[in-house]
Amino acid sequence: MHNHFNGLKTAALFGGIFAVLLALGSVIGGGQYLWLFALFGVGMTFYGYWNSDKLAIKAMHAYPVSEAQAPAMYRIVRELSTAAGKPMPRLFISPTPAPNAFATGRNPDHAAVCCTEGILGLLDERELRGVLGHELMHVYNRDILTGSVAAAVAGVITSVAQMLMFTSMFGGGGSDEDRPNPFALLAMALLAPVAAMIIQMAISRTREYDADEDGARLTGDPLALASALRKLETGVARAPLQPTPALQNSSHMMIANPFRPQDVSRFFSTHPPMTERIARLEQQAYGFRQR
């Protein structure tokens, strides 16, 4: 069990986001379409999960690299994946000066790890090892599945809410007795996407804490990742990415929030504050020294 009960938190948050989806289904047509919304949510989840690697790599314009092109990256990933007893993922580099890294793919056998040119130029090899350990644990913890499910269901909720908005504004068929209260529909249409997004972001932040903790355990060097996060916080502030739709859909996979702090509120951030992540890693390192 993780020290901060992140698995339990994730399960509770998933229950919350599916509850929002089912609440939407119960409002429309007196609940007779509830099963349809559940089925639609499952279908969108599967699509997002199956194509997660292609979508993220395309969004970052990343290209595959050979061992000759990225020897240090290959050596570190090979050592860590061997230590974990897992297959080595495909490696990619994104031609952007913004320092960041992410892992994607539907399972350890179909995974990819990507670093930007910015992060490769910013970190030393020890810090890069800490970052790559973090990313590999996203793969081994099946966080890509978790993020894909949360993003897909949140997307379904937003689409249904838009339909509810239209219904509440222009009315629907049937008698006055059968027609839902337009004010109730409007309230649900406005609040449901916000609730879904807040829950989705909370799931992402919880998984980041897990990847920090498990990645540091894999490398045996929590302070290396802490040092990398300090540099990344400064580096992202100097070279933030523009929050385009494609990047917003992939940003939860990255080790650092790629956007300017003023573009994202705390509730809607996909990542915990760097100060909290660093403090937890330093506490973990202290625990290592006490053994």
Automatic annotation (TrEMBL):
Family matches, as Gene3D superfamilies: Metalloproteases ('zincins'), catalytic domain
Domain of life: Bacteria
EC number annotated for this UniProt entry: 3.4.24.-
Active site: 135
Residues holding Zn(2+): 134, 138, 208
Membrane topology annotation: Multi-pass membrane protein
rRNA processing as UniProt keyword: no
Cellular component annotations (GO), alphabetically ordered: plasma membrane
Alphabetical keyword list: Cell membrane, Hydrolase, Membrane, Metal-binding, Metalloprotease, Protease, Transmembrane, Transmembrane helix, Zinc
MF-aspect GO terms: metalloendopeptidase activity; zinc ion binding
GO BP term, example: proteolysis
Cofactor note: Binds 1 zinc ion per subunit.
Segments crossing the lipid bilayer: 7-27, 33-50, 144-171, 183-203
Localization per record: Cell membrane
Cofactor(s) it depends on: Zn(2+)
CDD domains, per database record: M48B_HtpX_like
Peptidase M48 domain mapped to chain residues: 69-283
Family stated for the protein in its record: Belongs to the peptidase M48B family.
Entries under PANTHER family matching the protein: PROTEASE HTPX
Protein name: Protease HtpX homolog
